[in-house]
Design goal:
Layout (H helix, E strand, L loop, with lengths): L2 H11 L2 H5 L24 E7 L6 H22 L4 E7 L4 H13 L4 E4 L3 H13 L3 E4 L14 E3 L4 H16 L3 E7 L3 H16 L3 E8 L7 H10 L3 E5 L2 H13 L7 E3 L5 H7 L7 E4 L10 H12 L5 H20 L4 H9 L4 E3 L2 E5 L5 E2 L3 E6 L2 E4 L2
Parallel strand pairs: 1-2, 1-3, 3-4, 4-5, 6-7, 6-8, 8-9
Antiparallel strand pairs: 10-14, 11-12, 12-13, 14-15
Helix pairs in contact: 1-6, 3-12, 4-5, 6-7, 9-10, 12-13
């Protein structure tokens, strides 16, 4: 179902901005730049890139993001509309590293920064960009409310308060679950947001939550939580976690003997977690922004070019980063300026831009809107969840 057709339903169900506890800032959209720091369009425009190149988030998030950004930059520069140059800083897989990286790039005078994968990191780093009127455009983070930190903050991932209501609607209609359990990382900002949205949406749909199990980032043994969940006999289990913990939890459902009657749903599931989880991933459902089986215009060309350049299949975070830079480049082209305020204003007005995610728009807070895909793992591969 199209987001545009049911966004009223999603908004009616929840008001997550109140629960996240973040401050909001009105997005003042104009078509006039303040003129400060303006470059001519013939010059190279420096773009800050903050990704994890070391630490635990490098392999699942940082490297795919970097590849997606690089592929997009090369294509954009060849087209000749704008000429982008990267200044890349390693966030070292920490919130402190992300904040320091953003400050370093702000000091170097970049008009925009892309990357910032982890919601916990964006929450710490975004205020630095906002205070200095520099665009922070996250390609991966999705905790509800983070774009409302300020009108220079934008995101490509579907925020949890957009994605989860749509996913719950699709899965409940087919599975018909009436009682569920959740498990989430009590430390991570994204995981807490995901679980809070799930709680609100499920309860609004008359679904009983039997138990909410928690763990902490970097935990490795989830057997007790999973046994607690099996004991209450839910129809479905919702997992809210980052990549490393998703893979371990899904794998351990098989190890503790999860019955087929409990449907496992992980909103941010990707093929990386499916492969790491092995047989335990069979039947797991995910709410996905990008898929290799999508028929969005240009998607198959993107996949072919990615394979040719890197010799591997593209990952969702690479695809979303590819889109992020293309959306940013389009805004620079529209603004005909490298001034951050002019680019910000053009970004805010982005509507139905064709991308490999589908037609791409921003809502009033700077969160992305496009069609979501719900997938299920069958025989170790993703298939569309009909």
């Amino acid at each position: 179902m199209k987001i545009k057709r049911i966004i009223i339903f999603a908004l009616a169900l929840i008001s997550i901005g109140l629960t996240v506890g973040l401050f909001s800032c009105n997005r003042i959209v104009s078509v006039v730049s303040d003129g400060e720091g303006t470059q001519t369009m013939d010059e190279e425009i420096p773009i800050g890139v903050v990704v994890a190149l070391t630490g635990k988030y490098a392999e699942p998030y940082g490297f795919p993001m970097q590849r997606g950004f690089e592929l997009a930059r090369d294509e954009i520069n060849r087209r000749g509309d704008v000429n982008l140059r990267f200044i890349t800083v390693d966030d070292q897989s920490t919130a402190a590293g992300a904040k320091a990286a953003v400050q370093q790039l702000v000091n170097q005078g970049v008009p925009a920064i892309v990357g910032l994968a982890i919601s916990t990191h964006l929450k710490e780093a975004a205020p630095v960009a906002q205070e200095n009127r520099v665009i922070a455009f996250s390609s991966v983070s999705s905790a509800a409310g983070l774009s409302a930190i300020g009108n220079f903050i934008f995101r490509t991932s579907l925020a949890t308060d957009i994605s989860i209501p749509l996913g719950v609607m699709a899965t409940q209609q087919k599975i018909g679950y009436q009682k569920v359990a959740t498990i989430y990382d009590a430390i991570d900002v994204y995981a807490r947001s995901s679980n809070e949205v799930l709680k609100t949406v499920l309860e609004a749909n008359g679904v009983e939550i039997l138990t909410q199990e928690t763990f902490k980032t970097d935990d490795t043994d989830f057997s007790q939580q999973l046994k607690n969940i099996m004991a209450v006999e839910p129809d479905a289990l919702f997992i809210s976690a980052l990549s490393q913990e998703i893979a371990r939890i899904v794998a351990q459902t098989s190890e503790v003997g999860f019955p087929d009657t409990i449907h496992v749903i992980s909103p941010d599931l990707t093929m990386d977690e499916v492969q790491k989880a092995g047989d335990g991933a069979e039947g797991t459902i995910g709410f996905i922004g990008w898929s290799s089986i999508s028929d969005a215009p240009g998607n198959q060309t993107f996949i072919e070019n990615y394979r040719a350049k890197y010799g591997i299949e593209p990952e969702p975070w690479a695809a979303q980063s590819y889109v992020t830079l293309n959306v940013l480049a389009n805004a620079i082209k529209v603004a005909q300026s490298a001034d951050s305020t002019a680019i910000r204003d053009a970004l805010a007005q982005t509507k139905d831009l064709p991308t490999i995610l589908g037609n791409f728009s921003f809502n009033a807070d700077g969160d992305a809107l496009y069609d979501q895909i719900v997938l299920v793992v069958k025989d170790g591969e993703f298939q569309v969840f009909e």
